[in-house]
Amino acid sequence: MEKLTITASDGYQLSALYASPDRESRGSIVISSATGVKKEFYIHFAGFLIGQGYHVLLFDYRGIGGSAPVDLRTMDAYMHEWGTKDMNAVVDYLVHEKGLKEIIWLGHSVGAQLVGFVDHAEHIAKVVSVNSALGYWRYFPLPWRWLIWALWYFVGPLMVKVYGYGVMSKIGWGENLPRNMLLEWRTWCLNRSYFRESLTELLDAGQFVRFTRPITAVYMSDDFIANDKTVPLMMGFFPNSPHQILKLSVREHTRGKVGHTGIFRKKYREELWPVLLAIIEK
């Protein structure tokens, strides 16, 4: 894949990867990552999509992977900027630099949660939301509920106090996060309405209301984060988007554990990738 640098409206430089198919194009797909997940995690699945005839773009949000500064303690960015700035920059790049429209937005977790911030949603044909869910800690099953509670009430604040940023790699939760990102995420996850209060008080709540692109929300049956309660609640943030919710039974497709991120792993190329492709193309 071609290495790119995409410049956001505030001048921030985002690291991205892009490739076009060798045969006639069947469309364009953006893979928008989960929290703390680098774009390279999706590169094998991206290759699968390119082989199926799609233009594909991967990118790192500010503060993550190739879009992170050397010292995260110097970064003041917030998580909502992944939507208000970074996602908008990606859409603008594909439309104005690559001449692509009718973009399929494949959002993993937060990668679909924040798509309501895209200003020119008319360039998005549809959203495929993978394991995207409202993140309030009390809506998770036991014993995970108490582990997440410990993260937000003790571990997270302690990391920020000791290191000056969220050392998420030490607890196996992906890439490290700048201070303000971790604290904003914490605020959302301790609130029963997730980031709805932030939309009302700090951001443009109307953007999510104005977002009308169709959404297919897919989640795995063994994902404790995206579950029967949290996925429908997240779809409630998009009141004017026609949507459907699909729960994929893990046992029907594989003997392995898929969870929140597993569907994109190379080992599921034969078992789960054709299923996800069929959903994308429906």
UniProtKB/TrEMBL annotation:
Keywords for the protein's UniProt record, in alphabetical order: Hydrolase, Membrane, Transmembrane, Transmembrane helix
GO molecular function, a single term: hydrolase activity
SUPFAM superfamilies according to UniProt: alpha/beta-Hydrolases
Source species: Dyadobacter soli
Keyword Aminoacyl-tRNA synthetase: no
Residues covered by the Serine aminopeptidase S33 domain: 24-151
TM region(s), chain numbering: 146-164
Pfam family membership, one: Hydrolase_4
UniProt-listed Gene3D superfamilies: alpha/beta hydrolase
Keyword presence, Nuclease: no
Family annotation (InterPro entries): AB_hydrolase_fold (IPR029058), Hydrolase_4 (IPR022742), UCP037442_abhydr (IPR017208)
Name of the protein in its database record: Predicted alpha/beta hydrolase
